[in-house]
Amino acid sequence: MSDEIVEIKVRENGPYRVKGPVRLIDADGNEFDLEPHTKDGTIVLCRCGASKTKPFCDKTHSKLGFEAAERAVREADAT
Fold first, then answer.
1. Does the pLDDT of residue 54 top 80, yes or no?
2. CA distance 61 to 55
3. In the prediction, which pLDDT does 2 show?
């Protein structure tokens, strides 16, 4: 097992940027081939839901004007 830390960065009004050794598995248990979607050990995952290459980002969010809530809400503020 790798000791490398996986970094997941939430991009403002954009996708999740995932850097590090990960396995991505669909709802049926099939592992995705990350090679076509990997750049420098990084994959970019759709957050807007409109990508034609789900679960990977195809930058459709920028055409839609996707706005996301990037900031975590403290538990006390969520209730």
1. yes
2. 13
3. 63
